[in-house]
């Protein structure tokens, strides 16, 4: 549905555009009855006032929105740096919006953009997002969207991703080759595509080496660190606990280290850990952390460049998916005993 403007309201009500504008501003020059007619029609047609129209005079806002779940994760901090590197040279400003892993918050943020606040959107969806109707509605307003890292695969938009399936496989295979036989997987969501692909890669590695991927060793973690602590502690207190862990999100690093300390488990002697992480302090943890490191800066920069191409009306395949490989960085948390 295209955006309804003042001219469309004026035609519907057989009034001048200036009368509509004044009524919407609650001007004293317009009667209460006319104001009521205008407001009722505006509501019926889902009119959203453009707060920037008068000042921009038809020009672009030169703002790009970046919608992400959080900034505590170093991946997103690095990705934002990549985005800014690409857009600032083109004269665009970056506006950061946090969903805090909430679909409701994500939808509300999108609605704010109907008024022309931004020219385009770069986004990584929340863990709760399973439906893309709010994104389709924004795209119907001629505002382009590009996904990076977390995407809704069914939407025909450009995406910048890493090789999550292969990365999950690589992490699990590395643990197997270093002697692990009971390997757990800590996921972040049952619905997020990146979590699904990482788990599928992990399962493939176990199957390839003739090992069992049991349900009790595949944990779906939450956004609450306290809940995750209890889940990981219960996992490692099993009668036959895992001897290796693939953690699919960075925030679980602290949780696993804390649980091992509380249970007096030695890493890597009792349990080995690989974590999807861009943490700079990975090298100084005790023991240093083996990571699957995503190319965060490059992913952010590439996503921004794809969005800029659309804003400049250059050809971009809407369903295009750019895959940038991640890297296994081996450190002491998976050292062979």
Automatic annotation (TrEMBL):
Span of the signal peptide: none
Check the record and name the CDD domains matching this protein. Answer: HTH_LacI, PBP1_LacI_sugar_binding-like
Fetch the InterPro entries from UniProt: HTH_LacI, LacI/GalR-like_sensor, Lambda_DNA-bd_dom_sf, Peripla_BP_I
Tell me a Gene Ontology molecular-function term this record carries.
transcription cis-regulatory region binding
SMART domains, from UniProt? HTH_LACI
Q: Which Pfam families match?
A: LacI, Peripla_BP_3
Record PANTHER family: HTH-TYPE TRANSCRIPTIONAL REGULATOR GALS, LACI-RELATED TRANSCRIPTIONAL REPRESSOR
Q: What is this protein called?
A: LacI family transcriptional regulator
Q: Which organism is it from?
A: Chitinophaga solisilvae
What is the taxonomic lineage of the source species?
A: Bacteria, Pseudomonadati, Bacteroidota, Chitinophagia, Chitinophagales
């Amino acid at each position: 549905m295209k955006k309804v403007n003042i001219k469309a309201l004026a035609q519907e009500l057989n009034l001048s555009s200036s009368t509509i504008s004044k009524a919407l501003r609650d001007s004293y020059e317009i009667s209460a009855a006319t104001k009521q007619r205008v407001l009722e029609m505006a509501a019926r047609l889902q009119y959203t006032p453009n707060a920037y129209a008068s000042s921009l005079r038809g020009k672009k806002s030169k703002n790009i929105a970046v919608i992400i779940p959080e900034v505590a994760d170093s991946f997103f901090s690095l990705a934002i740096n990549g985005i800014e590197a690409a857009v600032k040279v083109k004269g665009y400003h970056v506006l950061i919006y946090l969903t805090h892993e909430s679909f409701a918050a994500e939808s509300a943020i999108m609605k704010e953009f109907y008024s022309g606040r931004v020219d385009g959107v770069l986004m990584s969806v929340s863990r709760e997002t399973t439906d893309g109707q709010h994104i389709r509605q924004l795209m119907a307003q001629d505002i382009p969207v590009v996904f990076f890292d977390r995407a809704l695969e069914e939407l025909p938009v450009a995406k910048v991703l890493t090789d999550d399936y292969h990365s999950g496989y690589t992490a699990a295979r590395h643990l197997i080759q270093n002697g692990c036989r009971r390997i757990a997987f800590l996921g972040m969501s049952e619905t997020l595509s990146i979590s699904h692909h990482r788990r599928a890669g992990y399962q493939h590695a176990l199957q390839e080496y003739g090992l069992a991927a049991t349900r009790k060793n595949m944990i779906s973690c939450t956004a609450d660190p306290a809940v995750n602590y209890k889940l990981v502690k219960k996992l490692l207190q099993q009668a036959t606990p895992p001897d290796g862990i693939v953690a699919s999100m960075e925030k679980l690093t602290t949780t696993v280290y804390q649980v091992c300390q509380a249970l007096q488990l030695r890493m890597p002697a009792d349990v080995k850990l690989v974590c999807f992480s861009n943490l700079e302090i990975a090298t100084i943890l005790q023991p240093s952390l083996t990571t699957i490191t995503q190319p965060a800066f490059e992913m952010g920069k590439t996503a921004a460049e794809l969005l800029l191409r659309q804003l400049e009306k250059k050809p971009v395949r809407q369903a295009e998916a750019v895959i940038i490989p991640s890297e296994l960085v081996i450190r002491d948390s998976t050292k062979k005993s």
